């Protein structure tokens, strides 16, 4: 099948959203291959930083992309950005994988995906286009100083995040907390317009 | 429902990042059920997660990964089935809880102190954080206590007051060792809270020391 998407891949939320929609509508394998090329190696890094082995991280990256393929019809570009949607899939698979590692499968209760579903109906429409949220978040974090960006990034990885971040960056725990607070305050300023 | 007390931004970020243990996750999720403001923050933080993911350095996939995956695309996909229906059993009778708790094993209320009852929530995953519902009658003055770990409290109904303010339905309270709780239930009906706790309560006073063995969970 010839992809309806043309042009070069670029780190661009709108393009990723179109690729996911092409999968949903046409089962477009070229669109899928492009998403794989961009995201799979990055999801692999994400999983390795979360403690997965190389083999395990590779498999989790594959599983994430497989879920992108199979859930593409559920993707709603008006309510969530493409990268954020893929992130939540990867996050949930990571949680379930960590539990399997501890030999405590959670299949009987629906797993992490269910644990992030907070109400029974669709999410309320905030009236703000997801692409706007996405663009503003990207601008906001690109405007953060490096040291603040590092603590934000790291808080997406470890359990007992703050103590671990302090160890990783070799800075006192208090400094981690104050940098995170600063970074959050700046993000909040940029995001507050939404609420 | 007007919510006045929220989890910290750090806690909401950890929730969005999926790094909380299940007990903490349940406490924050319970708050989110009743708080659109914090749901918006979590949603925004998931976009930050998306940006973090999209900006990760690359780790080359193993040879043959894509081909292996491509062969799986044609298979019927178990993951594509809709999420399981959530029968309202177990904790389905308690208003304000996140739906995934409905399927947890039921438990019954038990007496732990005068006018105070506790109903444990048994987690399907081992978690360093214990979770339970706490029901206290109006006018109850909770035993003075501090914590060796931390305590997250979500009000489901009724209200209480302590030095940190007044807490009604939807409010979230975070206590750690620095807090000496002296809590009074000031609603006209029972106050029901979901509590997630790590470490032990340290009760002060003679009565507290006598009750300590009963309150251990």
Q: What is the residue-mean pLDDT of chain A, rounded to a whole number?
A: 80
- Specify the oligomeric state: heterodimer
- H/E order of the elements of chain B? HHHHEEEEEEEEEEEH
At the first level of CATH, the class of chain B is Mainly Beta
Q: What count of structural domains of chain B?
A: 1
Q: What's the N-to-C terminus distance of chain A?
A: 43 Å
Alpha carbon gyration radius of chain B: 21 Å
Largest beta-sheet details of chain B: 6 strands, antiparallel
Structural class determined from secondary elements of chain A: mainly alpha
Radius of gyration of chain A: 18 Å
Shape of chain B: elongated
Q: Name the helix and strand elements of chain A from N-terminus to C-terminus, one letter apiece.
A: HHHHHHHHH
Number of strands of chain A: 0
According to CATH, the homologous superfamily of chain B is Jelly Rolls
- What is the 3D form of chain A? globular
* Number of helices in the DSSP assignment of chain A: 9
Q: How many angstroms separate the termini of chain B?
A: 32 Å
CATH structural architecture of chain B: Sandwich
How can the largest sheet of chain A be summarized? Answer: none
Number of helices of chain B: 5
Strand content of the residues of chain B, in percent? Answer: 15-25%
Pfam family, one (chain B): Cupin_7
Protein name (chain B): Cupin domain-containing protein
InterPro entries (chain B): Anti-sigma_ChrR, Anti_sigma_zinc_sf, ChrR-like_cupin_dom, RmlC-like_jellyroll, RmlC_Cupin_sf, Znf_put
Family (chain A): Belongs to the sigma-70 factor family. ECF subfamily.
Structure description:
The complex is a heterodimer of chains A (195) and B (217). In chain A, 41% of the residues are buried. The termini of chain A are far apart. Chain A contains nine helices and no strands. Chain A is globular. Chain A has 195 residues and is mainly alpha-helical. Chain B is of the alpha+beta class. Chain B has one domain: Jelly Rolls, CATH 2.60.120.10. Helix content of chain B is 28%, strand content 24%. Chain B is built from five helices and eleven strands. In chain B, the strands form three sheets. A six-stranded antiparallel sheet of chain B has the order 1-2-3-10-5-8, sandwiched between helices. Chain B has a three-stranded antiparallel sheet with strand order 7-6-9, with no helix packed on it. In chain B, strand 2 and strand 3 form a beta hairpin. Chain B is elongated and about 65 Å long. Classes of the chains: A mainly alpha (195), B alpha+beta (217). At the A-B interface, helix 2, helix 3, helix 4, helix 5 and helix 6 of A face helix 1, helix 2, helix 3 and helix 4 of B. Chain A: It comes from Bradyrhizobium jicamae. Chain A: Pfam families: Sigma70_r2, Sigma70_r4.
